[in-house]
Write a sequence for this structure.
């Protein structure tokens, strides 16, 4: 068995592309590009070579830089026969079936995959009559895997092939077959109900759910339920009437990260063309945004104002710029904070404004891409600051009651403490604060007479003040 490894560039799309479905709430798509122009004929004497792809200005050994967390690879395998052929040109891959053994094109190892996926591609059968069966299957490239091995992925159930179906001649008519839920035999869809046809080029879309729970997607603005361990197949925008089952109970992988096209052997040589291959997964964040910001908050400290923000993902993020205004209109820059570049993990940032304005301070963020593109983040944080923070926190004792006067920037839950002058905690009380100036009553019957220290702790900071009981 000879194998040829062709590494393909994979980049994240900013739109759904050819896929008419929308996972909720967002789609995350990977477009597999066939940029290499090459022809590979299999023979007993030709050596196996690899075609490496790169972008301008990028080392040929760095195959997947856009971004590095989204990758795809393709492995082409065939027997040593002089008739089988792969050809890649103008983003189209053509496959010619061999007379012996089989050949494959496998797009796999797609990072950040999930258990729910959509595979889409153009399948050109204008030079195909069905003499050699043509199979399509998908799953996981866990080693050893039928997805990328020399063995047929349609023949039997396996731990890494989730779904498989094929186009084959039966009684001189082209029909569709698929593996049953047991993975042990083929089920034939009658020719009248088979949507994939010979002699034409058609768009094929597969929606797979390898989880134990039903999910849903929208297709042409209509909601579609996808049952657990099931996949749907659309051809030219029309869905096969059958809901295809998982290929046997032995499938045990957690994500769908590979798609394979398999051409069987036959004495009649035919050609199939594949193009516009994409893989789409559901996403909880909008992949069209360079940065997914989940929170932007601030709190007043005794020595300034602390700003905090969290991102769920980042793409080509160079830096953040923190801005401040006293009137909510005329902002000036406080500083720049370097971003994570490309990340699909939670990232936390913090910045302390050591010299806030007396009164209200309004804070905003700008995010700047590596190419200089500026994105204004809409969220604004407003906080009140005074030179003497104790002016916003006063305590008065009268009989057995403490009157606690607090000017709170926002409604939040506070911890109120009383200590003696030696630092020993005497009491602790929870206070539900309201925005603005309010006075709260706290029981003081168990407190000793004399000078005491009150302390209040909120998400805006900590303040202390002495009072006489």
């Amino acid at each position: 068995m000879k194998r040829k490894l062709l590494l393909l560039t994979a980049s994240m799309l900013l739109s759904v592309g050819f896929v008419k479905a929308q996972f909720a709430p967002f789609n995350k798509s990977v477009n597999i590009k066939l940029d290499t122009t090459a022809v590979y004929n299999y023979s007993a004497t030709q050596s196996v070579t690899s075609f490496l792809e790169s972008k301008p200005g990028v080392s040929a050994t760095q195959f997947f830089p856009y971004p590095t967390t989204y990758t795809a690879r393709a492995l082409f395998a065939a027997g040593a026969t002089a008739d089988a052929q792969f050809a890649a040109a103008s983003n189209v891959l053509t496959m010619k079936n061999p007379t012996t053994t089989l050949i494959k094109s496998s797009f796999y190892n797609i990072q950040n995959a999930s258990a729910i996926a959509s595979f889409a591609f153009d399948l050109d059968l204008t030079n195909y009559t069905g003499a050699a069966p043509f199979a399509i299957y998908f799953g996981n490239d866990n080693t050893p895997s039928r997805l990328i091995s020399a063995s047929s992925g349609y023949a039997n159930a396996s731990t890494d092939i989730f779904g498989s179906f094929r186009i084959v001649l039966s009684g001189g008519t082209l029909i569709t077959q698929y593996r049953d839920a047991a993975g042990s035999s083929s089920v034939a869809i009658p020719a009248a109900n088979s949507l994939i046809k010979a002699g034409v080029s058609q768009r094929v879309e597969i929606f797979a759910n390898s989880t134990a729970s039903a999910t849903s997607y929208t297709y042409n603005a209509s909601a579609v339920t996808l049952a657990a361990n099931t996949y749907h197949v659309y051809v030219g925008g029309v869905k096969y009437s059958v809901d295809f089952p998982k290929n046997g109970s032995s499938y045990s992988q957690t994500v769908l990260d590979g798609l394979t096209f398999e051409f069987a052997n036959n004495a009649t040589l035919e050609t199939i063309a594949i193009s516009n291959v994409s893989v789409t997964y559901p996403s909880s964040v909008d992949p069209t945004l360079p940065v997914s910001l989940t929170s932007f908050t601030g709190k007043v400290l005794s020595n300034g104002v602390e700003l905090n923000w969290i991102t769920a993902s980042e793409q080509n993020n160079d830096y953040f710029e923190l801005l401040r205004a006293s009137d909510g209109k005329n902002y000036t820059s406080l500083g720049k904070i370097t971003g994570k570049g490309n990340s699909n993990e939670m990232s936390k940032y913090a910045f302390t404004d050591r010299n806030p304005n007396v009164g209200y301070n309004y804070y905003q963020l700008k995010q700047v891409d590596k190419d200089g593109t500026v994105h204004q983040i809409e969220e604004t944080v407003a906080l009140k600051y005074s030179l003497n923070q104790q002016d916003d926190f006063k305590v008065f004792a009268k009989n057995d009651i403490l009157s606690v006067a607090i000017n709170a920037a926002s409604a939040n839950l506070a911890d109120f403490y009383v200590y003696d002058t030696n630092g020993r905690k005497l009491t602790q009380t929870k206070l539900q604060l309201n925005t603005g100036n309010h006075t709260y009553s706290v029981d003081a019957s168990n407190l000793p007479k004399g000078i005491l220290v009150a302390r209040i702790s909120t998400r805006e900071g900590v303040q202390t003040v002495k009072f006489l009981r």
